[in-house]
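Re: your question about Amino acid/polyamine transporter I

S., sorry for the slow reply, the queue was backed up all week. Below is exactly what I fed in.
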Amino acid sequence: MQDNANTALQPGIRKENYATADSELEKLGYKQEMTRSRGLFHILFMTLAIMAVPYGLAAPIATSLVAGGPATIIWGWVTVSFLTLPLACSLGEICAKYPTSAGAYYWCFRLASPRRRLLFSWINGWLTMVGVWTISLSVTFGTAQLVVAGAGIFLPDWVVKPWHTYLIFLAVTGVAVIFCVFFNPILPTIDVISAYWTLLGVIVILVCVSVKAAAGRHSAAFALGHFDPSPSGWTPGWAFFIGLLPAYTFAAIGMIASMAEEVHNPSSDLPRAIVWSIPIGFISGVLFLVPILFTLPDIATLISVSSGQPVGLMFELIMGSKGGGFGLWFIIFGIGMFCAISISCAASRATWAFARDAAIPFHQTFANVNTHLSGGIPLNAILLSTAIQILLALIYLGSSAAFNAFVGVAVMCLGSSYAMPVAISLANGRKDMTDSPFPLGRFGTALNTVAVVWAAFEMVLFSMPAVLPVTPTTMNYASVVFVAFALMSAVWYLISGRHHYKGPDIPEAAGEDNQIMEKQTGQKSDP
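Result:
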């Protein structure tokens, strides 16, 4: 194990805490290579920055308006929040026992039977990789589309071409990468600034929208109960579920596990950050949505915006001026940029961790930690994650419909990667969770079951087209892209993975295999 050269002491943190975290990491099979620079509030604020609730609710608002309007938006948010909490609790319980940047694929390896653990870990690892790359892409590209929406406030006649949006996306991605590469030591501080920006931004939007309301005010019956699914073409019941795109906001809650090796006390801090982020995010979402729904402009006008992103126009109409609309838009844009930085950082750590276990081509290169920049960062993994996103974004130049599928793919991949270790733990009778530092106790089985069912239902939701009848433009290609990535990972496993991927290098792995087999079968393993 490396010395504490990579664990610079932070004020108020005892040296023994670092030593304990490093020792526990070694028991999990890894040496300490990253700098432990984050406490509970740093990692909580990073989780909230990745969730970016106002941005996550504003970006897909057009679909929610089409799929029912105000009732779908507010009650969909309530539904998603309450259904995501069991998943957060389930992930927190497992993460507390296995706090490593390897995350869910490591959890599958430790929880599955020795016969299946290698395959399950490989499948989960590639689900995680595709998920973190596409969710990061959706944030950076979504922020670029938000820039287009902001520009539309002052340039309503601007005909936006795909290459315009792509160039803006490159700029957003470039800013995120610069922060990840050159400002790594201050990223915890940036996450704190992000938390204050979001809190003050929500308050400013709440006050300004409530006071101005230039587009008129609605009754509580409209703001909380108006439901018109006719623009979607779906039946009323299913239209409500199609409008649950706010689930996208919580899609990356488990990504914070990839920061485990940069947290002072990961067994305690990570599960609390994951679980606390849901009620905090829920409250901030309610404070953001309710005043907007009481002052919402004409829905038909909003969903007819040529760019497909009505946020800029919505704020302009509510505020009654371009300047006022731009001011509120800028708050959402700032949240999007903070999210792009944090999620790019987390995606790079997940990429680095998978490469460290020899699961990525040229893994030696991408598992390297550059100690000359910012006190130690996985530079090559950052560049790989970024390059993949830049290449995938090129699809937008040929088909925006195909590109939009990446949002659905991100939710599907991450949701299934989170559900796998929870489902395996359930199948084992939760025997492996009895000694978790964050136990769910007697509620564990119920919470795990809801988590798995909700993750499975999300995969169905994000495979469906938003409107009927389906055309090549409105078709949801998420399931096609999901299957394509699955086939690619399967082929790579047959060609190379089965020969090189041995899973995490766990100390005394053979003995642990026997212990796990005994737990699952109730019989002693052969010596």
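The chain has 22 helices and no strands. The domain at 41-500 is CATH 1.20.1740.10 (Amino acid/polyamine transporter I).

Happy to talk it through on Thursday.
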